[in-house]
Design brief:
Layout lengths: L2 H12 L3 E5 L17 H12 L5 E4 L1 H5 L4 H14 L6 E6 L3 H14 L4 E4 L9 H4 L5 E7 L22 H10 L8 E5 L4 H10 L5 E3 L9 H8 L3 E2 L5 E2 L4 E5 L1 H4 L7 H24 L7
Parallel strand pairs: 1-2, 1-10, 3-4, 4-5, 5-6, 6-7, 7-10
Antiparallel strand pairs: 8-9
Helix pairs in contact: 2-4, 2-11, 8-9, 9-11
Amino acid sequence: MNFIDMLRQAERQNGSLLCIGLDPDPAKFPADLKNNASRIYDFCAGIVDATADLALAFKPQIAYFAAHRAEDQLERLIAHIRATAPQVPVILDAKRGDIGSTAEQYAIEAFERYGADAVTLSPFMGFDSVQPYLKHHGKGAFLLCRTSNPGGDDFQAQRLANVAGSPFLYEHIAQLAQGPWNLNGQLGLVVGATYPAEIERVRALAPTLPLLIPGVGAQGGDALATVVAGWRGTVSVEGEIDTTALIIVNSSRAILYASANTNFAAAARREAIKTRDTLEAARLAVSKPRISMI
């Protein structure tokens, strides 16, 4: 089963658009784990166990593990996700962006060492920095397109004056990902929830690609606006929703640190349920057929 098929299956089975980001910061752990980097796996596994039936995807951020020499714990964690929630894909948030043999090694790291189903990439160095990942059959790659941080304007919101129609850089990336770069249907795009108008524009330019949307929760992105801007579904003849153009809405800190006490996993579950249900209600509202008054 390839990455896109895994997403579809997880969406159907868990009824969810929610991606749970695993960004473990030992300084924010509950008291019995606090500042103990050797317990990163225990903390994250507790979150996974509490939310495995609620998530469309899990997204571990590699820097939070590498900074604490915890790469072995990341390997164990992804193996645990495989055992606990085999229907839920894993997106390794690495934002790699190199070329040639170096990119090949990064792809091996993501897909063979860690066993991730997809990875985030920076497309700044061009297609040859993306192509090595596409050689891994069935894996996904999400290109940074319109990120949620304010500094994204420095490049992404600049126009390409020498290109016909002078699109913004993020629009150009979306067009490349939807078109000539998407050789095997493996690409998706990262678009921040803090820019719903840009989500809508990216969806128009990339109507079939999955969108990974961070920024809901602690970063202030609005769940309803995100779904309205990015989710597109059509009803099939069987009456089911066609989820070809999925959105994967990520929340990290709001779920991970919903409680600073030993009940952190239960609190994370409650927060995840609330976010998932908010996203689902928004999706149902968007997908309601409009009744013509004519």
